[in-house]
Here is the input.
Amino acid sequence: MTAFADLFKPRKLAVLALSAASALALLGIDPADALPYRDTLTQWADRLDTAAAELDGKPVQPSTRIGEGGLMKLGSSGERVGRLAQRLVELGLLPADKLSQVFTSDVDLAVKAFQLAQRMKPDGLVGAGTREALDRTPAEAAALMRQSATAMRSFRDTVPDNILVVNLTDQTTTLVRGGEEELTMRAIVGRPSRETPLLTDRITHIIVNPTWTVPPTIMKEDKLPSLRAKGTPGIQNAIVYLDGQEVAPETVDWHDVTPGRVRIVQQPGNHNALGRFRFNLTNPYDIYLHGTNEPRLFARELRSISSGCVRLEDPRRLAELLLQGTNVTSARIDRMLDKPQPQWVKLATPMPVQFVYWIATVEADGAVRLHPDIYDRIDGAPAGVSAPATEPAPGTLPAVAPASAPAGMPAMAPSGTPAGKSANEAMPGADKSRV
Here is the structure.
C-alpha cells in the first residue's frame, strides 16, 4: 500500500478536517462572523496574488499534457492513461516504477490524492475538470490567479450593496444585501455548446409554480421526433398544441408536421423542468434563473450542463430573502405553491444580477481553487467582467448591459414581444423557455 492510501483512512480525513479548522483560526476567520462582501473580495484578490507569487518562485518542472479525450477511470487503458500516469509521477503522487498505460489501483489512489489536494471530489474519475487541472502548469495557474484577482478588484470597486453574483466557472450563486453576503448556493450553468453569457441584468419578477414551454431547438431535435415515433412528447403533465389548438398527441399523425406548428407546455408542479420557482431577468436571450426537478445534479463537481439558464440549488430560500419585508411571507408562498396556476410576484425594487467568470477562487480556510475554463475563454478574453449592475432608484430600472450574444442565441428579442417588454416580461403565462 502506498503512502497516498493513508489519506483516505477515516482518521487521516479527520486530521485534514482539523487542519482546515486550524487554518481558519490562524487566518482570523470566524465562520459565524463573515466579512463585508467588498472586504472579502479584497482578501480573495490579495490571497490569489500571494499564491501566484509563490508559484513563480518554484523551479520549472516537466509537465506532461494528458490532452482532451474521454473519461478515464480504474480499468481504463491506452496512451492517454500512460500520459496521466506520467503526469502523476511528475507531481510526486505516483512512484516512477508504477508507470503504466493501464489505470491501476495505484493510479486511482494517486488521482484521488490529487483531487483531494485540489479540493475536488476524490472519486478517481479523470473527466474534463480533473484532466484540465492536471494539465495546468504552475505558470498557467499563476496567470489565472492574477487574472481573477484583477477582475475581483475591479468588481469590488463598483459593486452595489445589493446584488446577486453568479460565478460561471465555480457554478455558484451568491446573494449580497446591504454589502453583506447572505446566501451562497450551488448552481448549474450552460453547457459549452450553449454558454451562459456574461450578463449585467436584474431580477424583476418571481414566478411561483412556473410552466415550461419547450424551446425550438429541443422541439426540433428531441420532442417532435418523440411524437413521431411514440405519439407522446415524453414530458410529464404536458399540454400539446398543434396550430394553436390543444390536441391529444396520440391521435395525430406527426410525420408531416413541422416544428413551428407545435407548442408543448409543461404544467406547474414538482415534475416541472423549472422546478417551483423562476426568477425573471430582462435580457433578450431568454436567460433567467430557476429551480429544477432534478436536484441530484447538484452533487456533480462539474455542473455546466444546462441549455443556458442558471438552475439554483435552493430557489425557495432565494425567493424568501428577496421577498423579505413584503406581504409575501413564507406561509403565503406555501399557499401559492398549493395553487395549480403560475403565481407572479413583482419585486418592488429589482435585484441587480452580475454574471462573472472567475477561474480562481478562495475557500473559507484560505485555500485557492482553480476551476475549469468551461467556455474556453482564457485565451480569447481577459478574466474581467462587464460593469456590474448599478442599484436602481425606487421606481426605475437600470439598462440591461449584456456581453456579446452567446453562440446560437438571437441577437434581438424574439418577435411577438409587446413593445417595451423583454421576452421574459411579456405577460403572465408567456414562457419562451431555456433550461
Remarks:
- Confidence is low (pLDDT under 50) at residues 1-32, 380-430.
- The radius of gyration is 24 Å.
- The first helix runs from residue 10 to 26.
